[in-house]
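Q&A log
Question type: sequence-to-structure
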Amino acid sequence: MSTPTPGPLRPALRALGLALLLVGGCSRETGAGDTDTDPIDDDSGSGDGPWSDSGKDSADPGDTADSGDTSGPPGDPAVTQAPGFDSDVFRQWPGIVQLDDGRVLVAGGQIVRGPDGGGPGRVTGREETELLDVGKQTFALTGALQDGRYAMGATLLADGSVLVTGGAGGPAGDPAMPRATAERFVPAQGTWTRLTATMVEARAGHLAWVPASGTFAGQVLLLGGQGPPYTAERYDPGDGDFHAVPVSGAPAKRTSAYVLLADGRVLLVGVWDDADDPTQCWFFAPETGTFTRTGDLTTERTGFSATLLADGRVLVAGGVIGTTYLDSAEIFDPSTGTSTALSATLGSPRYGHAAARLGSGRVVLAGGVRKAGEALATVDVFDPATGTFSQADGELAAARASASGFALADGRVMILGGQAILPHSGTAILSTVDFIGE
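Response status: OK
Response body:
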């Protein structure tokens, strides 16, 4: 179930400057968003953790504000391990989208290819794409991507097709080289087609989403990537081309996480550089293209998760600063531009964990690293109604970090792939799948 991940993975990722935090808790579609490196690295305090989505969010590693029914918690969250239901593809940081028919598309992802000429393994993007039927509990391979990639944006278009944009893993398999190509998947045909149009800029680890209203409704917006300067562009399905979106006031620093807010703005969480504390937060308004500084986080942290709550606030949890792994959390309120530290703490310090919102509105924080060289299989659950954390019943099938957390339409959260720490040395990229439900 695992493929060893040799030492070159870490410097390759560090050169790329990606970590791909969940973007607002992955939901329906994902765009990556985070910057820096591998949480399993012993010197992980220097960088951020992975998305989805997250993640970003994918997230991450674009994400929508809607994450399912928010009528209240129906029961205690529990982890369901799915032996025999795992993916056939070892990967981390893929593009994930739930299709109109309920199936889940999982495309690409990062993998370490076999050594060339007796040398070390090569970090690159996968081409394999799978369709997950949640009801039948089956994974099925479908048409492969034209270009192997990970940390791409993945968005569902109005016609039911899926657009992936950018990502890392090429050309020529160079993990430090973001792509400027895009591909479209048509579910009825099961095939990917590379667009003739190329992106305005090559980017990976960016936020990708489809606004529901406003000037860009129905188009795909792309924001940021692996570092400054921050730019934006849009894909117009009408003319099949990419167009630059003028921006102003962008911070000349890296962003740890992007969160798509309910009002259409984007929150940049943990904006920093090597000379600054990673506490800055900024808003981006797509309609005007302007960036605006807002209130800071209460605690320095990188490698945290940033998840949009049903009431529009954002949960910022865990992370690391220096060599200190954090079990603290805070709530950022976009309406006031302020962040408030929670008195409650996570059950364990977590860095590089997966985070996503359940249908009840509660948030799961799954896996991650509690200290250098020690991954977690436990799952914390945050309840916005009480402002407290509890532990879900059961554990993940494999302790791991860098997994993708994805909110399904039925209210459950899927935890897919990621990295495990091997007993003696090194890491392993997994194909393991777990579900968390209520």
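Response note: The first strand starts at residue 2 and ends at 5.
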